[in-house]
Amino acid sequence: MFNHKRSSKATSTAGSKSAGSADAAGDGNDGGYNAGIAVFSYIIGGIIVWSLIGWGLDNLWGTRWIVLLGALLGAAGGFYLSHMHGLTSQRSSSGESNADSGPSKDGDSNAK
């Protein structure tokens, strides 16, 4: 059988540049995709969970509208969670936010 474990000597002699750059390149290429999947999961998960809660309350109380309220509440809650986790904000390719956060990069200031 093939042993997937590396010895500590093999790990220490491996180039840290190649391993580090491979990890960084992998993280940068699919960050938007992972954030999109997370937002989708929060929203769909919220709709499913709160719809099931609404369905249970509908059956308990003999109504038919609480399931719809639960679906809307779940969608709003999922979007809120994804926004609070910073998944819905736009980011530049370097990972910084688009908002101004300091002096301009060209050296001009707005002070008079």
From TrEMBL:
The keyword Acyltransferase does not apply. The chain crosses the membrane at residues 37-57, 63-81. Residues 1-29, 88-112 are annotated as: Disordered. It comes from the Bacteria. Residues 9-27 have a biased composition (Low complexity). Keywords: Membrane, Transmembrane, Transmembrane helix. Residues 88-101 have a biased composition (Polar residues). Residues 103-112 have a biased composition (Basic and acidic residues). This is AtpZ/AtpI family protein. It comes from Arthrobacter cavernae.
